[in-house]
């Protein structure tokens, strides 16, 4: 059983990877109003981030430090990314933004091709990408790569992709952020480090080539 938040619990062993979670389950794990945000914050505490799942690059995301800021922040998020599901997560300060480069094929196989650190950002836009990750111990990076691959296989993912995490250096814990289901511009960092041709590997994986 896996708790998704907002008191939603799912038995992942009963989820069909080809269909994913139901729309009702996804809706229950998100917030539908400013009141929902307040209820969520009462459980997990401040500060939090209100995020639109279809946002990016600084759009559809707001930091909230107290109850008085919730209504305006929620309104801004839903107006910036109209129609997107919105969720709330606890904010982690002084963290690192780390990511894992994945490659998965039609046979259910998934491998990590390395890790990157994209923590140096300005206005939610990545400026410098480093690889491989050195800001976390090797065993933590290995756990992160394993978690990314297990996630991809659990949902039947088929493609190159990037699984992103927040890493807390103080506790050595990491939390899932999102998956970019495509090659990102920073994939060349992984190519340089590992001597890969990721676009070619992506085509081979999609064609189920050996």
What does this entry look like structurally?
By secondary structure, the protein is of the alpha+beta class. The chain has two domains: 17-90, ATP-grasp fold, A domain (Dna Ligase, domain 1, 2-Layer Sandwich); 96-208, ATP-grasp fold, B domain (D-amino Acid Aminotransferase, Chain A, domain 1, 2-Layer Sandwich), CATH 3.30.470.20. Helices cover 30% and strands 35% of the residues. It contains six helices and ten strands; from the N terminus they run E-E-H-H-E-E-H-E-E-E-E-H-E-E-H-H. The chain has helices spanning 23-28, 34-44, 70-80, 138-154, 187-194, 198-206; strands at 2-5, 8-10, 48-56, 59-64, 86-90, 96-104, 110-122, 125-130, 159-168, 173-180. Strand 1 (2-5) and strand 2 form a beta hairpin. Helix 2 crosses helix 3. It is globular. The two termini are 35 Å apart. Residues 1-5 have low confidence and may be disordered. Residues 15-207 form the ATP-grasp domain. Its cofactor is biotin. This is Acetyl-coA carboxylase ACC2. InterPro entries: ACCA, ATP-grasp, ATP_grasp_subdomain_1, CPAse_ATP-bd. Keywords: ATP-binding, Biotin, Ligase, Nucleotide-binding.
